[in-house]
UniProtKB/TrEMBL annotation, chain A:
InterPro entries: BOP1/Erb1, BOP1_N_dom, WD40/YVTN_repeat-like_dom_sf, WD40_repeat_CS, WD40_repeat_dom_sf, WD40_rpt
Region (Disordered): 1-34
Superkingdom, taxonomy of origin: Eukaryota
Keyword Metal-binding belongs to the record: no
WD repeats: from-to residues: 326-367
Family note: Belongs to the WD repeat BOP1/ERB1 family.
Keyword rRNA processing attached: yes
Protein's recorded name: Ribosome biogenesis protein BOP1
Comp. bias intervals (Acidic residues): 16-28
Pfam families: BOP1NT, WD40
UniProtKB/TrEMBL annotation, chain B:
Gene3D superfamilies: BRCT domain
Domain of life of the source: Eukaryota
UniProt cross-references to InterPro entries, sorted A to Z: BRCT_dom, BRCT_dom_sf, PES
Keywords, alphabetical: Coiled coil, Nucleus, Ribosome biogenesis, rRNA processing
Record's protein name: Pescadillo homolog
Cellular component terms (Gene Ontology): nucleoplasm; PeBoW complex; preribosome, large subunit precursor
Principal location listed in the UniProt entry: nucleus
Family, as annotated: Belongs to the pescadillo family.
Basic and acidic residues: compositionally biased ranges: 490-499, 514-527
Compartments, record wording: Nucleus, Nucleolus; Nucleus, Nucleoplasm
Short name of one Pfam family: Pescadillo_N
Length: 657, 585
């Protein structure tokens, strides 16, 4: 408790100082240990004599005249003259012992420290022992040394347990032994540097290859670097600004190069590649995470893919060059047809006229203004809702007079039936007669196509209409009679055609072609065209093959004996196919398309049923200009020569020979 | 009737594959352990042919392993070791928690370890298999050996990698197997031919790596564990195939030479030997001290016809190879301190040159700068302060270019301060129609021994230009003809218009021109048309394939043309600049 407050320390110091003198006088040089004990006792005793208040802060007595009580209970009074600052100052200036004067708050008196006390304070401050004479480095006395002493330190007899083996130890050892036996504790492993100790692993190479190795797909090696990766690449491999901008814009996965090629003037200026560790890491990930699959790379010579076809030169004759252009129409020429002799050509155009041309001279011999767009002229023309039969009077006089006779033959006409009231037959008169119009067949709706029977007495007209069963009409010219062959609507009729030899009738709707037997009045076949919208149809002169052009650029060839599916689908046009035609006796057919080309193909049909037709494209004929996305609209062959006529949206007819 | 109903996904490909999670559950491993096992055993996911069938009708993205692979993993002894390790970690943690330091020590002493020898043997049943797959191992070991010995991985691993790579390089030097080198912006590529296998690896430039945070070093460490084992065994086998002592020891003679120098300055005693090895200066000790390498001569077999030609070609190749192996023989090269010492020493020694460097750069220098017999000094600074007359001062690229060209290139392009010619990749093998940089053409011409003088080269350049011009003219002719056609057409059209408008034509009779019809050209055109028509008749599938191939071909041509155009523009610009300079002077 002495060291608790400052005051007590001071007081103790003072006391000890005063006492130590006495002690020294009394006891001379006593042992260090005993002395300090006494020191404390004395200290306490002296304190008791002076003031009995104990270890309390002396501020508590500030307002009292006394400082505390002595042993007898009498008050200890403060010194009468209290020193003020001036006194202190004067004291400081004058008193040579001021520096070693200490104020004792408990007694209120000033105490001047002696030389010895000051020395003691100094020693304590510097962390030494308080006693001057104390030797801290005394030689140690070795009581227990390795030298066997003559006499025992203690004379106690040895215990019994020092003679017999320890049971506890035995138990512990047996536990350890058991643990080692059981494998719970492993004996200390012999340090072996097995890492980095190598031997000939493949000394006995057994060729037994596991099944796994057959399934193994080795990882592809890292692609070897190209010139771009060089530190000093040729200048053409460096990026220009455009390429650099593109590279920066692109996603990291889309980039062709994973880095920007750079050029350094010398090897010492090449910096470290910042993504080096990344790239190795990515490789690691690829090796163990990337699913592997064996992909067969197609390694074919593209030339081998091209089918081997007979040379076009061996398949001559076929039209090769454009030889004549027939100009005169001012609108699209929708349709053309050639007279059976091959001398005359008729064309119908959107400008509302039908023109007759001489094939050899490309002269227009006759123009008939019929008013309204003309869809089909074959010595007859059909307008919006009328079909006109014209007699151009260009042929031999005999032929002309014969046809005139036929057309003006009224006797054959039967009384009008009820069903035929749909169509009105009328004869042309006056001006029209002079122009060559002979008969008019008034239809209730717009006529899109007219097809002649091979005998020339019958003709069929098409009026496409979704909702009506009245789409096809068959007219007999000699008897001026019309009839509607179908009771039911089976889809939008696009084209009709008569079989050249037998009594069959072909009707092309949007997606299929139906073949009807006219005698039995029943459907015999339905051909699936696999096209979206059939645009045109032609029947082979033999009658066993049909080609259909469609608006989705396809041309399908049907072999009627083979199947109802197309035997061959040709996709050689770039745009919608508008017209198809067969040659009458050469093995040729042609297709006209909106891309401005006419493609002539060789299509041999064999009499042997086992041999499939041979189809070889032989010539692409160009010449028509494309206007308003329309190219060639109609195509037809010369009846006797291997010539082909085509009419186009550029208001011309062209002859290719 | 009928029998049992067939259930879906109970046979066929659905039963051959297993998803990763299922595999993990089957093996009872945590994901990191499974990953480690897959890396070590070389198991990788497979992409099934019909993913939806395998995925039981779902199209969710999943990775699939072959069920057989996973079954095969079930019997792997290493899986048991993984479990032991897990137990060990648990025990250790417990001991730490209880502050039982003795048991901690005991546990640490008994830390479970595993060996990968059997895995290597199983993955690579023959030595050639191992060599085929050693590219990645080399890349990884070379990378790890450049890591600082702090932090990212164990110091032992780094030291082991360094040791193995030094052994590998020493083997390559002794067997003279180096074929190609390439200085890229990523690092230096080396290609060697060991036992008929081409092996390529990449060494980063000597810089401290700034370790990216998004890289999982545990994965890399696992790979390195496998690769160090593999590389060690491969090294052992390779050393024995050359009758060299493994672990490598320096030749007695070389060692004696090195002993003279004071060794204490470089490294501690324990490390000095490996340092000496890694200096790549001395030759290695052999088990059987053979004098010189005996060249096994190829036996002659009587052959006929085509085989004869092949044989001759092979012989020629062999001769070329032998010449390449002796490329730098007789040269005495001194490396300045600023050039990459290890790479250059490796390459030069591979081709038989004597190499030395400054004593303070590395241990093992054999001669000094002042040596009068030095033929080449490799320098990579703008100027050298003190030059000896009887040696060439060249930049390091010369060495690399010489190796790739397989001849000693003229040194004048590589002198100090000279703008270096572009450094080309030796790995690019141009096929017909590919773009070939003019520098490569030049080197090829040099190799053929056609012309070596610069002037002639210039001439050649001039010729080249002329040729180009000729080509241009041809092209122009074509264009002219086309233009004529177009003009005619235009004329006709005009006439048509006039006619259609009903105007009187200005009919004139002009003397007709005789069109010279080139029969060869006509024939060509006919053939081209035939081909076009045949293409029209192609089936849809074949057409698609054909179009794809043709597209690829065209793209290739386009790219080559683009590069050529770029080069031409660059050269023209340079020429103009040169002229301007000349004028100014």
């Amino acid at each position: 408790d002495l060291s608790d407050s400052e005051d007590s320390v001071f007081s103790g110091l003072e006391d000890s100082g005063s006492d130590s003198e006495e002690e020294e006088e009394e006891e001379g040089g006593g042992g260090g240990g005993g002395r300090s004990v006494r020191f404390c006792e004395v200290l306490c005793a002296v304190q008791d004599i002076r003031n009995t208040v104990g270890n309390v802060p002396m501020e508590w007595y500030r307002d009292f005249p006394h400082l505390g009580y002595d042993l007898d209970g009498r008050k200890i009074y403060k010194p009468i003259r209290s020193q003020d600052e001036l006194d202190h100052f004067l004291d400081k200036m004058e008193n040579p012992d001021y520096w070693r004067t200490v104020h004792d708050k408990q007694t209120g008196s000033d105490i001047t420290l002696s030389e010895e006390q000051v020395a003691l304070v100094r020693r304590l401050q510097s962390g030494r022992f308080g006693d001057v004479d104390f030797n801290e480095y005394q030689p140690t006395v070795e009581y227990f040394s390795r030298d066997v002493m003559l006499h025992p330190v203690t004379n106690r007899p040895a215990d019994k347990r020092s003679f017999i083996p320890s049971l506890i130890e035995k138990e512990k050892v047996s536990k350890l032994v058991h643990a080692i036996k059981m494998g719970w504790i492993k004996p200390r492993r012999v340090e072996d540097d097995s890492r980095g100790r190598y031997y000939d692993l493949w000394a006995s190479e057994d060729s037994s290859i596991l099944a796994r190795h057959k399934m193994h797909l080795p990882a592809p090696k890292i692609p070897l670097p190209g010139h771009q990766e060089s530190y000093n690449p040729p200048p053409e491999f460096l990026f220009n600004e455009e390429e650099r901008a593109l590279w920066e814009q692109q996603d990291a996965a889309d980039r062709k190069l994973p880095f920007v090629p750079r050029k350094f003037s010398s090897l010492r200026s090449v910096p470290a590649f910042p993504r080096f560790v990344h790239e190795r890491f990515e490789r690691c990930l690829d090796l163990y995470l990337c699913p592997r699959q064996r992909k067969m790379r197609v390694n074919v010579d593209p030339e081998d893919l091209i089918p081997k076809l007979p040379k076009p030169r061996d398949l001559q004759p076929f039209p090769t060059t454009q030889s004549l252009v027939y100009r005169g129409h001012s609108g699209l020429i929708r349709s053309i047809s050639v007279s059976p002799t091959g001398q005359w050509l008729a064309s119908g155009s959107d400008d509302g006229s039908v023109r007759f041309w001489e094939v050899c001279s490309s002269r227009c011999l006759k123009t008939v203004q019929v008013g309204g767009a003309v869809r089909r002229p074959v010595c007859l023309t059909h307008l919006d809702s009328r079909v006109l039969l014209l007699s151009p009077s260009l042929a031999d006089r005999q032929v002309v007079s014969a046809s005139e006779l036929l057309l003006s033959d009224k006797e054959g006409a039967e009384p009008v039936q009820g069903a035929e009231s749909l169509v009105t037959w009328s004869e042309a008169e006056g001006e029209e007669l002079n122009e060559g119009i002979r008969l008019k067949i008034q239809h209730p709706k717009a006529v899109h196509q007219v097809a002649w029977h091979a005998k020339g007495d019958y003709l069929a007209s098409v009026m496409p209409d979704h909702s009506s069963h009245l789409q096809v009409l068959i007219h007999q010219v000699s008897r001026r009679r019309s009839q509607n062959p179908f009771r039911r609507n089976k889809g939008l009729v696009q084209r009709v055609s008569f079989h050249p030899l037998r009594p069959y009738f072909f009707v092309a709707t949007q997606r299929s072609v139906r073949i009807y037997n006219l005698l039995k009045q029943e459907m015999t076949k339905k051909l699936q065209a696999n096209a979206k919208w059939i645009s045109s149809m032609a029947v082979h002169p033999g009658g066993d093959h049909v080609i259909c052009g469609s608006y989705d650029c396809r041309l399908s060839w049907f072999d009627l004996d083979l199947s109802t599916k197309p035997y061959r689908m040709l996709r050689h046009h770039k745009k919608a196919v508008r017209g198809v035609a067969y040659h009458r006796f050469y093995p040729l057919f042609a297709s006209a398309s909106d891309d401005g080309s006419v493609i002539v193909c060789h299509g041999t049909v064999y009499n042997d049923l086992l041999q499939n037709p041979l189809i070889v494209p032989v010539k692409v004929l160009r010449g028509h200009a494309v206007s308003q996305d329309l190219g060639v609209l109609d195509v037809t062959f010369h009846p006797s020569q291997p010539w082909v006529f085509s009419s186009g949206a550029d208001a011309t007819i062209r002859l290719y020979t | 009737m009928g029998g049992l109903q067939k259930k879906k996904f109970e046979r066929g490909s659905a039963t051959n594959y297993i998803t990763r999670n299922k595999a993990r559950k089957k093996l009872q491993l945590s994901l990191p352990d499974f990953r480690r096992l897959c890396i070590l055993k070389g198991i990788y996911p497979h992409e099934p042919k019909h993913k939806k069938k395998v995925n039981k009708g779902s199209t969710a993205p999943r990775t699939f392993y072959l069920l057989k692979d996973i079954r095969f993993l079930l019997h792997e002894p290493i899986v048991g070791k993984f479990r032991d390790y897990k137990v060990f970690v648990r025990k250790l943690r417990k001991a730490y928690g209880k502050s039982e330091w003795t048991s901690v020590e005991r546990l640490r002493e008994n830390k479970p370890t595993y060996k990968l020898d059997h895995i290597i043997k199983e993955r690579y049943p023959t030595f050639i298999d191992a060599l085929r797959d050693i590219d990645d191992a080399l890349c990884m070991c070379f990378l790890f050996s450049t890591f600082a010995r702090t932090g990212k991985c164990h110091v032992q691993t780094i030291q082991l990698c360094r040791r193995l790579t030094v052994e590998w390089m020493n083997y390559i030097i002794t067997s003279r197997a180096l074929r190609k080198v390439f200085l890229s912006i990523k690092g230096i590529y080396y290609q060697v031919e060991v036992m008929g296998q081409l092996i390529t690896w990449l060494v980063p430039y000597q810089f401290a790596h700034d370790h990216p945070t998004d890289v999982d070093y545990r994965v890399m460490a696992t790979f390195t564990e496998l690769y160090t084992t593999l590389l060690g065994f491969v090294n052992f086998r390779l050393y024995h195939s050359l009758n060299l002592v493994y672990p490598p020891k320096l030749d007695g003679k070389a060692e004696a030479e090195l002993k003279e120098e004071d060794e204490e300055g470089y490294a501690m005693n324990s490390e000095s030997y490996s340092e000496k090895l890694s200096a790549l200066g001395g030759s290695l000790a052999r088990v059987v001290s053979a004098g010189e390498e005996e060249e096994a001569e190829v036996d002659q077999f009587p052959v006929e016809g085509e085989d004869m030609e092949k044989m001759e070609a092979r012989e020629k190749e062999q001769k070329e190879l032998e010449a390449q192996k002796r490329l730098f023989e007789g040269l005495k090269v001194f490396l300045n301190r600023e050039v990459p010492r290890e790479s250059l020493a490796f390459i030069l020694r591979c081709f038989g040159a004597e190499v030395s460097w400054d004593k303070s750069v590395c241990i093992g220098s054999t001669f000094d700068v002042t040596d009068e017999t030095i033929t080449h000094q490799i320098v990579d600074r703008p100027n050298a302060e003190k030059q000896y007359i009887n040696r060439y001062y060249i930049q390091p690229q010369w060495v690399y270019d010489c190796v790739n060209a397989k001849i000693l290139l003229p040194v004048q392009d590589y002198f100090l301060g000279v703008t270096l010619p572009p450094h080309l990749s030796p790995f690019v093998e141009e096929k017909e129609g590919d773009y070939i940089p003019p520098e490569k053409l030049k080197i090829m011409a040099l190799k053929r021994g056609e012309k070596s003088e610069e002037e002639e080269e210039e001439e050649e350049e001039g010729e080249g230009e002329e040729e180009e011009e000729d080509e241009d003219e041809d092209a122009e002719e074509d264009e002219d003809e086309e233009e004529e056609d177009v003009a005619e057409e235009m004329n006709l059209k005009k006439m048509e218009k006039q006619r259609s408008q009903g105007k009187s034509l200005s009919v004139k009779v002009t003397p007709g021109k005789v069109k010279a019809e080139n029969p060869a050209r006509l024939e060509q055109e006919e053939k081209a048309e035939e081909k076009r028509l045949a293409i029209m008749m192609m089936k849809k599938k074949e057409k698609y394939l054909y179009d794809k191939i043709m597209f690829g071909k065209k793209r290739k041509i386009r790219e080559a043309n683009k590069l050529a155009a770029k080069r031409k523009a660059h050269d023209d610009a340079e020429k103009v600049a040169k002229k301007k300079k000349a004028k100014k002077q």
